[in-house]
Amino acid sequence: MHTHPRRPLSPPAGVPRRQALLGLGSLAALGLAGPLAGCGRTQDDAGGSAVVRYQGWPQTVLFAELARDLGHLPTVELEYIGNTTSGPQDIQTVATGDAEIGHAFSGAVIKLVEAGVDIRGVANYYGSDERSFLGVFVGRESDVLEPRDLIGRTVGMNALGAHAEAFVHQFLAASGLSAEEIAEITLVPIPPSDLEISIVRGHLDAGVIDGIAQDLAVEHGTLRRLGRDVDLFGSFPAGQMVMRGSWIDAHPETAAELATGVDRAIRWATERPREEVVERFTRIVSERGRGEDPSPLKYWKSTGLTRGGLMEPQDFTRWSDWLRDSRIVDDAPDPGRYYTNSLIRSAATTEVPA
What positions does the domain SsuA/THI5-like occupy (predicted)? Predict the structure, then answer.
């Protein structure tokens, strides 16, 4: 679950869907696709603590942060460098060498790899299931009764080129809309905290909502759900923690400690009672000194993951239609280029400190 601080409502102009991820694609042109070994301040694996820079999410505990708290990163020093605004932005910092790890939707990872950027998914980090999912919502009294009614309308979402856009595209395609009809729907990037009120006030016709914003909308009774991502795919992993390939080569032990620690942290959070997980997340957020209100963590429901951090080819190929229609790939995506499970060691071991 990603939650974001409230910002004043200011509905932005719509952005055609084929402009999605344009900024990411420019990385290759800027020469960022080449090796970035030596960037950052990571110590050599031969000795000493390894400093690993990362961006966080407000009021959210990343699994790398949980792994540290559980004692699974004995030689890694995580250095928080600020909050990200979206998954695509987060992994850009990895591509540019400003961070060692980042987290994003699978399609955003594919986009950067296809642009020639040297990154790899090293562990899944979030997913959708019956408790935690993305949904398309419309106003309670809206005349949008089925997906086809969205043609010519506006749909808001946190970020273009990420999970929400890919889900909407494949949801509409599965509902019988052609690529041309889907292109007539305007996608609008807007903070999640503003989605519900924007729909209620008529600034948007629909919105893709998850996490606490979804829970609050359900409590308020102002919106009606049109569809869910789990209705298309069942439970599935949706995004990965990534590292630069050159950084992995230069620091294999540190990379393995991180990936393995994240895997074990996910398994802990999946297997322990929800109340215990929320209690630990709340303590972590309360003690890390970022001036955050930990109360939204009470809405946390699940990891959305059933295999820990381990990835499979379908984690990437399930988005093939959106990837092709968005011209991110020309043919079927090649999952072997986007991820590696080789850094996750003893994945079946789930014993962790209390």
Answer: 87-275
